[in-house]
Structure formats: C-alpha cells, structure tokens
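tool=predict chain=A
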Amino acid sequence: MNRQEFIRKAMLGAGLLISSKIMGGITLRTKEKETLPEPLGFNHLPITKETIMENKVLHKAESRGLANHGWLISRHTFSFANYYNPERMRFGVLRVLNDDVVEAGEGFGTHPHDNMEIISIPLEGDLEHKDSMGNVAVIKKGDVQVMSAGAGITHSEYNKNAGKPVKFLQIWVFPKIKNVKPRYDQITLKEEDRLNKLQQILSPNQDDEGVWIHQDAWFHLGKFEEGVSADYKLKKAGNGLYAFVLSGSFIVDGTELQERDGLGIQDIESVTIRSGSAGAEILLMEIPMNSCLI
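tool=predict ok
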C-alpha cells in the first residue's frame, strides 16, 4: 500500500462509525452468512476477542493488528486503517495506540488532522516533523511531542536517519473541546527522573510537568529495577487507566503483563504496579472513560 492510500484509510479507520459492510477486508456477518469463516483483520489476522476480567480488559501483544507496508511496520492496539476490530475501537477517550517502526529515510507524507490530541513518544532513532503552522523539529528518544489538531492542521513525519529505523508510539486522544486553535509542543525529559518511580510526561495543565493537552488526562513513564513496586493514585474520579509495557514485565493490579501487553482498568481509585524484570519500562495513561466534546 502506498503512503497516500495508507493515510487515507488511517483517517477513515479513526472514526467511530463504520457505514460500509466491507472495510479493510472484513465482511460483516448477517444471519444469511452464518456459515462464513471468522472475519479477518489486516494481513489476514483473525479478529481477537478482548479478554475481559470484571473491571479490566487485557490486550496481549500478539493480538494487536499488524500493518506491514515495507517502509512501515505498525502494531495497532485499537482499530486503525485496514485493521478493524469492533471489540477494539477505543478505551475511553484513548482512540489510537500504534507501535510504529519506520524504515530509514521513509515516512508519512503531508496529511490532515482535526479535533484530536496526538502524542508521539520516540523509542529509538530520530523523527522529523513539519506542519502547516511552520514548525520544523526533530524528536528523539527521551522526547515527548504533542500536537493539538483542533480546527485543522496538516503535517508530515519522516525518519531523519539514513541508516537505521525509527521506532515510536503514536497515541491519539479525543479532546474535550472542539475546534481549538491548533498547537504544537515538545519537551526533552530526564530519563533518570523515572528510575524506580513514575515520571509525569503529560497533563491537562500547561503549568504542570510534561506537555499538556485539551483533555483531563495524565501520562506517566517509569523504569524499574526488578521487584520494585509503585502506587499510582488517579487524579480525577471516574477516569480509567491504560497500562502499556514498553519492555520487560510487570504485575499491574494483580495482572501479569509482558512486553507490549496492554491493560485497561476502570472503576478504581488507585493501582499498584510491580516490576518483574530489571530495566522494565511502562507507560501509564489515565484518561476519561467518556468523550463529551463541547
């Protein structure tokens, strides 16, 4: 799939309404077609049902959608582009969690966004950003980038390096306010500030630690030695928490997670995490469980 087609389908796949009967190779079943095989996601991956445990939902790493375009390999926790899974549309206002690898010198051409808070967290390599507001920047491991698309913006993202891939998380969060003035920001974090503790990297307050977005959400990163525990108390009543393991293993609220596993939890006030391996890294995303745009 070329870049233009990929971007077009990504924009369609981010919506909540699917109007066609066929999307991304998935045929929706009807009563007359009950004998059809199980529907398939992108690259013929079976649609995996969510593992639901009372107030939790578990997304194992291998159950995510896979997109392999040659220049881009992306794992989708939630439905995106050609990967459509009706059981994985979002978790609260967390709409997209893509685990991307872009080959050397390649990238996403100029494309539009609106009314979405877009967060990029580089894990390896350098990613070059250009947008219609005139921003030109390079983000690398240790940085966090945020773009409030608001009333509308266009941008491009390319691997700045000619000799190695760039790996990054692309996260989309529904905002709580529509059509705000678009904005861009990025910061460089001190990785030592997250050793054996949780480092805030995002909040709704522009005067707080990290970047800020138009949503009552708080993100934290942590890197832990083996066996170290930490408690996280939710900032806002009614919010949920999505934990995503970047490396190593953790026990989160009693559930064992391995690298790239995700766990959504709601109806809680606090949670305890415990590292199961040395150098284990985790991303915690506290987000509202409903989306009411104003």
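The radius of gyration is 19 Å. The chain has one domain: 3-288.
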